[in-house]
Amino acid sequence: MKDLSKQMLYVNDVFSNARDLGLIQVKAHQDEESSRKISIDGKSYISFMSNNYLAFENDERVKEAAIEGIRKYGMQTSISRMYMSFDHYLELEDKLEKIFGLPTFLASSTTLGHFAYLPVIIGRNDAVILDQFVHESVQLAVNTLKADGYHVEMIKHSQMEMLERRIKALSEKYDNVWYMADSVYSMHGDVAPMKDIEMLMNKYDKFKTYIDDAHGMSWIGEHGKGFALHNIPRHEKMYVITSLNKGFGAFSSALIFPNKLTKQTVYNCGGALRFSAPTLHAGITAASCIADIHLTDEIYERQMRLNELITVFKQKAIDLKLPIINYAHTPQFFMGLGSVELLIRFSQFLMSKDFLLSPSTVPAVPVKHSGFRISLSLYQTVEDVKNLCDLLAEYIEVLEKEGSFNKEQVLKGFKMRDKQHDKA
């Protein structure tokens, strides 16, 4: 193995230490009944780690649909969709088009979807602007374009004035200017300023957007169409991709197009679609069952219950003055701690109280921006949410009294973004 860089050595040491303490890379067992709890070494913990916000993945109807998919079609059929599509693939795409109200095509993952989508829609004389925190999978796909000589640059997170300046400057030289962003950012749970983005698309002829809606899917919008399309239902210059794993609770991803011509062109020319492995049949039939639920009023009942959990968490966290980095109305929150050492101590405390959160540190976030990612889902109860907030406040008070934690300094260190972006 090659010699590791200084940063990689540090990351390796941090993860090794956390593993030795039983905080990560653990062998776990999921509660077969509800997914509310996860068992580690025979002890059960209430989990706030799942991104399956509406709790579809353990629904009996969905599990039966997945089983039926295997019974009827087998595990997979190893034939490229370039040559043929089975009926249940096309049926799912039809249902997704009803949900989104736009032409849609399936890919086996969002990452492969980016690699299929972007090289087709971005022209040789186009410029690409990446938001600082756009998902790494988007950045990986764009890096292949950059290596091929395309103009790629990055701007500070959600800075619309800076974006507009770059649109004006780049429009003088390039045919189109693309902005790539997440609708809901996976780490802090803050949201893209979609209305500002729409205004810029309307104002500048050459300006187009590519939105990753992976964490915005299902929990918001008509038929659960997601955060991006909830805010901008249709725009000829907006291209969207979303995951069917997280809020949707199944498998694969959906490429959403502004028109049928673009869909067919990506189908014809998207290399990652031609050569990647087919999606598992069980994932397709499970997703089809979930799509059926999205097209009924049940989706709104689930959205309403999740909305209650989000509201309870936000109010309780505000009352207790927890160091939450962002208060957008999404199922994803981030509590800042600052140091890896505090993160490890806090993780041990929470596990002693039978709670699991996602510890986040390098390389996912800068080392001084370590903290917990808190994911709300219908697997939890209102009481679970309140108890978690009380525990977080209890241990923060312990740390503050011993002088190892200062809430105000931590929040200042995170350089909280403009408050208008923290309100969804």
Automatic annotation (TrEMBL):
Domain Aminotransferase class I/classII large: 45-390
Domain of life: Bacteria
InterPro entries: Aminotransferase_I/II_large, AON_synthase_class-II, PyrdxlP-dep_Trfase, PyrdxlP-dep_Trfase_major, PyrdxlP-dep_Trfase_small
GO MF entry, a single one: transaminase activity
UniProt cross-references to Pfam families, sorted A to Z: Aminotran_1_2 (PF00155)
Record key words, sorted: Aminotransferase, Transferase
Names of the cofactor(s): pyridoxal 5'-phosphate
Protein name, per record: Aminotransferase class I/II-fold pyridoxal phosphate-dependent enzyme
Protein source organism: Emticicia soli
